[in-house]
Amino acid sequence: xxxxxxxxxxxxxxxxxxxxxxxxxxxxxxxxxxxxxxxxxxxxxxxxxxxxxxxxxxxxxxxxxxxxxxxxxxxxxxxxxxxxxxxxxxxxxxxxxxxxxxxxxxxxxxxxxxxxxxxxxxxxxxxxx
Length: 129
Hints:
CATH architecture: Beta Complex
Domain DUF427: 28-119
InterPro entries: DUF427 (IPR007361), DUF427_sf (IPR038694)
Pfam families: NTP_transf_9 (PF04248)
Radius of gyration: 15 Å
Number of helices: 0
Organism: Mesorhizobium plurifarium
Largest sheet: 7 strands, antiparallel
CATH superfamily: Domain of unknown function (DUF427)
Order of helices and strands: EEEEEEEEEE
Protein name: DUF427 domain-containing protein
Strand content: 35-45%
Number of strands: 10
């Protein structure tokens, strides 16, 4: 992915930190119990070692009627500020289960309008093509 010559304010350039975003070739389904929260054949895989890879699902493929936004937020020096949503059908376990970078740094625009889910809070199933 091409990086802008002048990084966004707050973006931290680190030659030892390699983050990749690739299209996932297959489908991804997110469930809370038997309830489907998201299903997509257009997900992206973000790899950021040493963290596990995360599937980023387009907002259009997420059922936001099953989510409620929260006040929780975090900051990543490589991606920007993350907003969080709770997965209502998961109850207490679903608190802050989905995050998204709604206004990511220019270096991470590929994940704008995509959400990712914590695999310890909901079930994320990936089926390759």
